[in-house]
C-alpha cells in the first residue's frame, strides 16, 4: 500500500486565511464564472476593467501569513508599547470596561457587524441602546436633545461652532474660545474655521469676555468645564455676558464630572459637547470614542449627525428610528454645514451601557472616588511645599514647580506614571477610575514629597465648590436601575441583540457600503491592553509598537493605492474627504492660486462630497451625469471652460457611484489637470480596485479610503470608521498634523482633522492584520471575487429586474443597481415594499434609492459564499413573482405581503383577514421556520416620528398601548 507523502512545508502552512475570508471556493467560483460567461477570474476582470487604469505590476506587499503568525507579529508589536498609569488627562482617561460589556458588546459580532440603522425595523436593539446614550448625555448636560454620537470631542466642538454660526443672531463677529479649553480642541476648531472665513479668538475668560473682543462682535463662545488645567469655576456669569452680546454658548463638559457638578444647561449653556470615552471605552491611543452634542430644544432640528427618535409602527406600537433624516448630507449636499456621515455607534452603545450597568449611584461613586484621590494627591503635595494652582477642581491638578517641571515628569515616568508637562514651571496630573494608592505614592515621590493617605483622608476636605454641587436627579428612567447584576445585564444585551439584524445573521447586500467579513483574528488584538490602554499623548518612546504598525499600514495603503503618502488621522470617511480637500486648497494657496475655489462634483456623487467641499471653503459646481451613469464629459469640458482659473478640484467616485468602471476616467483626469486643477477620487468603491488598479497611478492626486469598507474595520452599527487620506507627493506637505505630536504629520500641514494624533488608532490593528493575512495576491483575488459576485447577481436577476447600468462588455464593477421604477409604475409596489419584504425572507435590504430614486444598489462582497448569494437571488426572484400576483389582481394593491411587510410574530395572532395566508406572510419560499428571523416591529411611520420628536427614553407608560 502506497501512502502519498505530503511535504512538511505544505503541512506547516495550513489553510490560507484567504480561503477563510473569500466565501466562494474554487467550484463555486467556476459555477459563477459560467453564469457570467468567463473562464477565469483573470478573464473576467480583464474584460471588466478598462485598460487605461489597469495595473501591470503585482502589489509589492509582504507575503500572506497564517493567522497564528499574524497574531504573533501583533503580539510582538504590542510588547513594544509601554503602558504606564495614564495621569495625563486632556480628555483621555483610564477606565474599566465592565467585562459583561466588553464580551457582549465590543467583542460580539451581533453588535460590531451591524450596519447603520437605516432599516429601523431590524435595528430596534441598537436604536434602543442609542436612545439610552442620548438620555445619558441629555440628562447629565441638562439640555433636552442629544444626538446619537459624533466622532470625538474636538470635532464635536467644531460642529458646535458651525451650529452657532448657523442659528445665532450675530452675523459676522468672531468665535471666542476660552484659553483653558483642551489644546487639541482649539486646534481642530482653528483647522475647521479658517477655510470658511471664521475668525477664532482664544482668550482667558476666567474674568469674563474682554471688552476689546466684545466690541468686535461674538457669534459663539466655547468654554471648558472643568478646564484643561483642572480648574472648576462658575461659568454662569460669562455665559450671561455672552448671551448679552447675542452669542450662542457651547460648554465642552466632562460627563463624569457632571455627575457631581451643576449641569451646563442649568448654568445657561445653549450647547454641550464632549466625549464619552471615560464611560468604559478604552483609550486606544486616541480612539475610536463617541463624541456627543446636546442642545436646547429650539436647536434640535439643526443638530448635525444622527438623532434617534421614537415613532410608531403600523400597529401603533412604539418603535425607534433615525429621526429627521432629511438633514443627512446625502440629501442636503452643498447646502449642508456638516459632512457627518458615520457616527461612533459601537462606542456610544458601550458608553450608554456603562451608565445602564452602573446607574446614577454607581457613576456618582466612581466620580467621588476619582475626585477624592485628586484631593488627597493635592493635599499631600501642598504638605510637601508644592503649590497647587487652583483651589477648586474635579480630577485634574496643576502644580507649580518653577524650573523643574520636566524633571518631575521624568521622575514620575520612572515610577510608572505618565503626567503632563504643561510648561517649564507647571505639571498637570489627572486622576481617573483606575487611579489608586500606588499611583498617588509614585506621583508624590516624583515631586520629592511623601504622604500618609489615611491621615490625609481624615483631614482633607473635598475641593468641589459648594455652590456648583449638583442637586437635581438624573438617569431616573428604569433602564438605569434594572440591570445591576451581571445576569440581568447579560440578558438585556442579548435581548437587544436579538432584535437586530447584523452580518452574523446573514448577508447585508448594501451597495457602496461593503459589508464584508471582519475576521475574529483581525479583531482580537484591539482589546489587548497594550493597544487599548495607551494614552494618545503618551511619549513616543512608549508607543514604538503602535508607531511601527502605523508606519507599516501607511506604507502598505500607499502601495495599494499608488499614492506617495498616507495620513491615518481622519477618523471617518467624511473627515478624510475634508482632509484631502484642505490639502488641495493649501497646495493652490502655496502656489499663489488663491482664486482656485471651484469644486466640480458629478450629480451622482456621494452627498458628503459636496458638504466636505463647502467646509473646505470651496464653491460646488455640479457636473451632469449621462443616462448610462457615466460623467457627462461634454458638460465637464463646458464647466472647465466656464470656470477656468477658478477650478480647484474635481471630486469623482471610481468605480462610479452607479457601480461601473467608466472608460473615460483617464480623459477626465487629464482635462482637469490641463486646466490647473486637481483630481480627487472618492475611495468609497476601492473594493473593486485593490490589486487591479491604483487611483494614484491613473490620474488621481488625492483619495480618502474607507477602512471600514475595503479593509475590514467593522461598521459597528454606523461606526467606528477610519478614513485615511492618500496623496501624491506634491500634496504630501499639506496632510493633517497635530500640535501635541510632531510625528503625526508634516510641519507644513493643515492642522488636525481629529482630536487625536492618529485618529482612531485603536482599531488600526484590524486593517494591518487584514493586509498581512491576505498578502498582495490574496487582496487581488478578493477584489476579483467581489467583481465576480456582483456580476453573478446581475446576471441572475436581470431576467426579473432590469440592471440599470453596465460598463465595458456589459459588466458591472463590485455592485449593481436594479431598476424597480417600471414595476412600481405598473403595480404600485414601491422600493420600500421590496426592502421591507426582504426582511420576511431573512435579509437586510440593499441600498435604497441611491444614487437613483426607485432603485436598489446591491453589493455582495467577496466574503459571501455562493449558498448565501443564491439564497438572496432566490428571495429577490420570489419577490418578483409576488409582485406579479399584485399586478394580476390576485392580491389587492392595498393588501398583500409586500405593502404589509415586515410581518412580526405578533401579527399572526388573532383573526387573519388578509388576502394571503399566514404562511405566505412569514414563511415565504426558502424560509426555514427553525431559522426564522422575526422583526420586533412592523413598518415604522417616519413622518409621525419627525412631527413628534422624542429623543430620550420615554416613560414606561408610553409603551402601554
UniProtKB/TrEMBL annotation:
<dbReference type="GO" id="GO:0005960">
    <property type="term" value="C:glycine cleavage complex"/>
</dbReference>
<dbReference type="GO" id="GO:0016594">
    <property type="term" value="F:glycine binding"/>
</dbReference>
<keyword id="KW-0560">Oxidoreductase</keyword>
<comment type="similarity">
    <text>Belongs to the GcvP family.</text>
</comment>
<dbReference type="InterPro" id="IPR003437">
    <property type="entry name" value="GcvP"/>
</dbReference>
<comment type="function">
    <text>The glycine cleavage system catalyzes the degradation of glycine. The P protein binds the alpha-amino group of glycine through its pyridoxal phosphate cofactor; CO(2) is released and the remaining methylamine moiety is then transferred to the lipoamide cofactor of the H protein.</text>
</comment>
<dbReference type="GO" id="GO:0005829">
    <property type="term" value="C:cytosol"/>
</dbReference>
<dbReference type="GO" id="GO:0004375">
    <property type="term" value="F:glycine dehydrogenase (decarboxylating) activity"/>
</dbReference>
<dbReference type="Pfam" id="PF02347">
    <property type="entry name" value="GDC-P"/>
</dbReference>
<dbReference type="Pfam" id="PF21478">
    <property type="entry name" value="GcvP2_C"/>
</dbReference>
<feature type="domain" description="Glycine cleavage system P-protein N-terminal">
    <location>
        <begin position="19"/>
        <end position="447"/>
    </location>
</feature>
<keyword id="KW-0663">Pyridoxal phosphate</keyword>
<feature type="domain" description="Glycine dehydrogenase C-terminal">
    <location>
        <begin position="782"/>
        <end position="903"/>
    </location>
</feature>
<dbReference type="InterPro" id="IPR015422">
    <property type="entry name" value="PyrdxlP-dep_Trfase_small"/>
</dbReference>
<dbReference type="GO" id="GO:0030170">
    <property type="term" value="F:pyridoxal phosphate binding"/>
</dbReference>
<dbReference type="GO" id="GO:0019464">
    <property type="term" value="P:glycine decarboxylation via glycine cleavage system"/>
</dbReference>
<protein>
    <recommendedName>
        <fullName>Glycine dehydrogenase (decarboxylating)</fullName>
        <ecNumber>1.4.4.2</ecNumber>
    </recommendedName>
</protein>
<feature type="modified residue" description="N6-(pyridoxal phosphate)lysine">
    <location>
        <position position="709"/>
    </location>
</feature>
<feature type="domain" description="Glycine cleavage system P-protein N-terminal">
    <location>
        <begin position="454"/>
        <end position="736"/>
    </location>
</feature>
<dbReference type="InterPro" id="IPR015421">
    <property type="entry name" value="PyrdxlP-dep_Trfase_major"/>
</dbReference>
<dbReference type="InterPro" id="IPR020581">
    <property type="entry name" value="GDC_P"/>
</dbReference>
<dbReference type="InterPro" id="IPR049316">
    <property type="entry name" value="GDC-P_C"/>
</dbReference>
<dbReference type="InterPro" id="IPR015424">
    <property type="entry name" value="PyrdxlP-dep_Trfase"/>
</dbReference>
<dbReference type="InterPro" id="IPR049315">
    <property type="entry name" value="GDC-P_N"/>
</dbReference>
<comment type="subunit">
    <text>The glycine cleavage system is composed of four proteins: P, T, L and H.</text>
</comment>
Amino acid at each position: 500500500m502506497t501512502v502519498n507523502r505530503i511535504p512538511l512545508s505544505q503541512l506547516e502552512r495550513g489553510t490560507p486565511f484567504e480561503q477563510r475570508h473569500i466565501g466562494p471556493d474554487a467550484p463555486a467560483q467556476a459555477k459563477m464564472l459560467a453564469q457570467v460567461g468567463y473562464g477565469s477570474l483573470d478573464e473576467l476582470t480583464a474584460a471588466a476593467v478598462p485598460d487605461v487604469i489597469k495595473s501591470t505590476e503585482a502589489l509589492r506587499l509582504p507575503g500572506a501569513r497564517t493567522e497564528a503568525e499574524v497574531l504573533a507579529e501583533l503580539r510582538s508589536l504590542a510588547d513594544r508599547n509601554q503602558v504606564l498609569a495614564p495621569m495625563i488627562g486632556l480628555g483621555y482617561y483610564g477606565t474599566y470596561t465592565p467585562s459583561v460589556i466588553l464580551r457582549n458588546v465590543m467583542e460580539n459580532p451581533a453588535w460590531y457587524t451591524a450596519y447603520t440603522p437605516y432599516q429601523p425595523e431590524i435595528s430596534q436593539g441598537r436604536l434602543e441602546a442609542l436612545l439610552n446614550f442620548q438620555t445619558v448625555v441629555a440628562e447629565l448636560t441638562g439640555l433636552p436633545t442629544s444626538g446619537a454620537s459624533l466622532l470625538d470631542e474636538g470635532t464635536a466642538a467644531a460642529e458646535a461652532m458651525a451650529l452657532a454660526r448657523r442659528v445665532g443672531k450675530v452675523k459676522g463677529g468672531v468665535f471666542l474660545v476660552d484659553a483653558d479649553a483642551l489644546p487639541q480642541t482649539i486646534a481642530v476648531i482653528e483647522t475647521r474655521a479658517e477655510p470658511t472665513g471664521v475668525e477664532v479668538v482664544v482668550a482667558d475668560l476666567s474674568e469674563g469676555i474682554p471688552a476689546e473682543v466684545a466690541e468686535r462682535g461674538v457669534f459663539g463662545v466655547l468654554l471648558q468645564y472643568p478646564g484643561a488645567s483642572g480648574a472648576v469655576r462658575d461659568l454662569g456669569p460669562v455665559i450671561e455676558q455672552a448671551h448679552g452680546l447675542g452669542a450662542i454658548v457651547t460648554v465642552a463638559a466632562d460627563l463624569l464630572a457632571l455627575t457631581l457638578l451643576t449641569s451646563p444647561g442649568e448654568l445657561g449653556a445653549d450647547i454641550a459637547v464632549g466625549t464619552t470615552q471615560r464611560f468604559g471605552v478604552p483609550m486606544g491611543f486616541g480612539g475610536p470614542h463617541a463624541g456627543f452634542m446636546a442642545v436646547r430644544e429650539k436647536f434640535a432640528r439643526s443638530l448635525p449627525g444622527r438623532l434617534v427618535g421614537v415613532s410608531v409602527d403600523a400597529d401603533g406600537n412604539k418603535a425607534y428610528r433615525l429621526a429627521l433624516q432629511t438633514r443627512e448630507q446625502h440629501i442636503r449636499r452643498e447646502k449642508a454645514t456638516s459632512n457627518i456621515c458615520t457616527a461612533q455607534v459601537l462606542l456610544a452603545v458601550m458608553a450608554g451601557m456603562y451608565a445602564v450597568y452602573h446607574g446614577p449611584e454607581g457613576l456618582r461613586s466612581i466620580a467621588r472616588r476619582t475626585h477624592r484621590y485628586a484631593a488627597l494627591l493635592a493635599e499631600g503635595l501642598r504638605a510637601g511645599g508644592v503649590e497647587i494652582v487652583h483651589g477648586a477642581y474635579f480630577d485634574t491638578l496643576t502644580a507649580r514647580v518653577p524650573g523643574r517641571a520636566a524633571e518631575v515628569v521624568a521622575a514620575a515616568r520612572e515610577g510608572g506614571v505618565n503626567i503632563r508637562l504643561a510648561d517649564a514651571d507647571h505639571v498637570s496630573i489627572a486622576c481617573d477610575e483606575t487611579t489608586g494608592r500606588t499611583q498617588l505614592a509614585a506621583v508624590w515621590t516624583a515631586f520629592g514629597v511623601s504622604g500618609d493617605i489615611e491621615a490625609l483622608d481624615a483631614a482633607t476636605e473635598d475641593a468641589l465648590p459648594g455652590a456648583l454641587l449638583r442637586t437635581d436627579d438624573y438617569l431616573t428612567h428604569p433602564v438605569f436601575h434594572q440591570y445591576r447584576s451581571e445576569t440581568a445585564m447579560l440578558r438585556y444585551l442579548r435581548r437587544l441583540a436579538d432584535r437586530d439584524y447584523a452580518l452574523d445573521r446573514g448577508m447585508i447586500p448594501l451597495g457602496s457600503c461593503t459589508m464584508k467579513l471582519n475576521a475574529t483574528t483581525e479583531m482580537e488584538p484591539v482589546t489587548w491592553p497594550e493597544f487599548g490602554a495607551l494614552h494618545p499623548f503618551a511619549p513616543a518612546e512608549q508607543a514604538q509598537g503602535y508607531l511601527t504598525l502605523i508606519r507599516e499600514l501607511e506604507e502598505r495603503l500607499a502601495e495599494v493605492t499608488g499614492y506617495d503618502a498616507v495620513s491615518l488621522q481622519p477618523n471617518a470617511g467624511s473627515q478624510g474627504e475634508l482632509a484631502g480637500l484642505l490639502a488641495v486648497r493649501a497646495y493652490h494657496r502655496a502656489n499663489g492660486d488663491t482664486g482656485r475655489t471651484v469644486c466640480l462634483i458629478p450629480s451622482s456623487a456621494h452627498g458628503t462630497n459636496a458638504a466636505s467641499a463647502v467646509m473646505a471653503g470651496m464653491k460646488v459646481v455640479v457636473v451632469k451625469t449621462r443616462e448610462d451613469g457615466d460623467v457627462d464629459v461634454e458638460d465637464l469640458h463646458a464647466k472647465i471652460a466656464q470656470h477656468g482659473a477658478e477650478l480647484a478640484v474635481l471630486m469623482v467616485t471610481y468605480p462610479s457611484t452607479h457601480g461601473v468602471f467608466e472608460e473615460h476616467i483617464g480623459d477626465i483626469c487629464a482635462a482637469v489637470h490641463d486646466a490647473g486643477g486637481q483630481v480627487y477620487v472618492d475611495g468609497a468603491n476601492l473594493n473593486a480596485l485593490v490589486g487591479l488598479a491604483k487611483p494614484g497611478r491613473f490620474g488621481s492626486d488625492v483619495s480618502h479610503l474607507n477602512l471600514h469598507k475595503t479593509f475590514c474595520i467593522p461598521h459597528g452599527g454606523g461606526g467606528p470608521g477610519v478614513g485615511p487620506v492618500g496623496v501624491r507627493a506634491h500634496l504630501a506637505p499639506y496632510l493633517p498634523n497635530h500640535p501635541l505630536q510632531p510625528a503625526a504629520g508634516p510641519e507644513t500641514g493643515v492642522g488636525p482633522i481629529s482630536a487625536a494624533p492618529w485618529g482612531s488608532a485603536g482599531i488600526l490593528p484590524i486593517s494591518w492584520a487584514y493586509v498581512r493575512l491576505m498578502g498582495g495576491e490574496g487582496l487581488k483575488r478578493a477584489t476579483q471575487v467581489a467583481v465576480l459576485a456582483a456580476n453573478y447577481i446581475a446576471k441572475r436577476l436581470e431576467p426579473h429586474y432590469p440592471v440599470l447600468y453596465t460598463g465595458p462588455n456589459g459588466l458591472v464593477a463590485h455592485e449593481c443597481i436594479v431598476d424597480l421604477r417600471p414595476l412600481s409604475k405598473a403595480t404600485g409596489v414601491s422600493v420600500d415594499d421590496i426592502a421591507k419584504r426582504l426582511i420576511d425572507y431573512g435579509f437586510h435590504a440593499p441600498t435604497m434609492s441611491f444614487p437613483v430614486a426607485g432603485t436598489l444598489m446591491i453589493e455582495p462582497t467577496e466574503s459571501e459564499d455562493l449558498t448565501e448569494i443564491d439564497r438572496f437571488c432566490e428571495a429577490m426572484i420570489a419577490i418578483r413573482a409576488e409582485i406579479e400576483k399584485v399586478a394580476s389582481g390576485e392580491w389587492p394593491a392595498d393588501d398583500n405581503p409586500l405593502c404589509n411587510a415586515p410581518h412580526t410574530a405578533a401579527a399572526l395572532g388573532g383573526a387573519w383577514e388578509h388576502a394571503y395566508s399566514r404562511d405566505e406572510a412569514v414563511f415565504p419560499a426558502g424560509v426555514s421556520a427553525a431559522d426564522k428571523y422575526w422583526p420586533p416591529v412592523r413598518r415604522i411611520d417616519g413622518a409621525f416620528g419627525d412631527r413628534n420628536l422624542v429623543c430620550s427614553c420615554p416613560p414606561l407608560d408610553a409603551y402601554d398601548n
